[in-house]
Amino acid sequence: MGRNGRKPGRGQAGSRPSLDVAAILDARRGEELALNDLHLNPQFGRVLRTIGYDRTWVRGYGPYLWDDRGDRYLDLLSGYGVFALGRNNPAVRAQLERFLAAETANLPQLGVTLLAGVLAEQLLARAPSRLDAVVLTNSGTESVEAAIKLARASTGRPRVLYLNHGFHGLTNGALSVNGNEEFRERFGPLLPGCDMVPFGDLDALRTELARGDVAAFLVEPVQGKGVNIPEPHYLPEAQELCRAAGTLLVVDEVQTGLGRTGRFLALEHWGLEPDLVLLSKALSGGYVPVGAVLTTRAVFERVFDSMERAVVHGSTFGTNDLAAAAAIATLAEIDDAGLVERARAAGERLLELTRPLVDRYELVKDVRGLGLMWAIEFQPPSGGAALRAWRLAEDRQPGIFAQLVTGPLFSEHRILTQVAGHRMNVIKALPPLVIEDHDLVAFAEALDAVLARLERGLAGAMARFGLGVARRSLRRPRAAR
Fold first, then answer.
1. Which residue in 106, 108, 272, 318 has the fewest CB atoms around it within 10 Å?
2. Does position 332 have pLDDT exceeding 90, yes or no?
3. Rounded distance between C-alpha atoms, residue 152 and residue 168, angstroms
4. How far is CA 256 from CA 197, 226, 227, 325, in A?
5. What are the structural domain ranges in the chain?
6. CATH superfamily of the 31-85+339-473 domain
């Protein structure tokens, strides 16, 4: 027997380890897309090749990614908001290394451990005061699933309302409250009792609530698809309608939370006091998947209302120590680095740099944002050959103009952005909260340059883009070795 009563085994003294992850990363570099095509999602590989995003990524740090040619890219996608602290944040990594060295008694299952409780305590300390219970999850979509269950069980009502264009995940329950038909089609029948109401329409919400059978109204404070920001009165009045109807207000902060909009939670912009708040993405620190549902004690106790029902909801890995350690370290880094205030100031600066584009270019309809959640929306030109080219392209593929902007931003200026939704001429940016001013300036200047060229020769640009897409879509993938 070895020290501490353990038998020597693989990886311990006297044996040769069978695995070296660093060696795999080095020896098999360049096989990423081929392996994806063979074993994962070849249609996604086709998408990457078609839009020219097929790079071999070898390193990430802070707001940057590097490819195998040594080129550095400014990452304004941030893993859909996961890397709010930047990639490979050293403060979070250091705490994870200390955690691994501690060899905790992780996931006893018939028992509890410390870090999950500390994480819950720290989240509630930052949340609206009426929230005083937590269910830990593994992801945003799992948080949504949990919220649906908690709302139905605690109210005894069957229905859940959601908004058009709202996005809450892709598992079956979350898909049932997804306001984007392109994700829902072919997967029905979905959960019964889930009904959509129009974004911003209080009369429609009032009508549905009046039926008296709505358990929850689920809303993103800023919609991720399109970066749609509600009118100032909408969310507070929706909250009052829910209170009067006995319906739970569920605020999905999976993308907007943890400083993204210049407040720790976006709901603070409207002074909301919801019944449930959903978190994930940035809570991971970019390292370990984690999510959370923050709720009132009243909701919690109506669901877990006896010893027999102590385990009516949960998940195997929901309270795991590694995820809790990553989340606790993330919260500390947000505080220590002042990232909430930094996001607020950087968001104002980004709007200052980019809002003039609305007046400068006919093709720009709107620039909007809240903190470091930003979007630019495009519109057709007024007439002539440019308008004819726009209509021809949009008839074939709605939202294609936005790709004419994201493509050059990526290939020429090495800036990674995304189209904000299916068939939308909207580009979205979710910069890491650690982004520096010079990178914001570089983004604004690159965007200005791309738009200037497009406005000078839209018809030709669309023709060249179409030929390039066709050529790249025919490119054959390399076989994995």
1. 108
2. yes
3. 17
4. 21, 13, 10, 21
5. 31-85+339-473, 92-336
6. Aspartate Aminotransferase, domain 1 (3.90.1150.10)
Q: In CATH terms, are 31-85+339-473 and 92-336 the same topology?
A: no
| Contact between 180 and 220 (Cβ < 8 Å) | no
Burial class of residue 119 (count of CB atoms within 10 Å of its CB; 0-12, 13-18, 19+): buried
> For residue range 232-243, what is the model confidence (pLDDT) as tens digits?
999 999 999 999
> Tokens 């720790």 correspond to what residue?
264
* Three-state SS at 365: strand
Sign of CA dihedral 234, 240, 245, 248: positive
Q: What is the pLDDT of residues 218-237, one digit of tens each?
A: 999 999 999 999 999 999 99
> What's the pLDDT tens digit per position in 31-72?
999 999 999 999 999 999 998 999 999 999 999 999 999 999
And the tokens for 426?
């909207």
Token code pair at residue 282? 């940035």
On whether the CB atoms of residues 405 and 364 are closer than 8 A, the answer is no
Whole-number Å distance between alpha carbons of 61 and 110:
39
CATH 3.40.640.10 fits 92-336, yes or no: yes
Residue matched to tokens 């790079």: 55
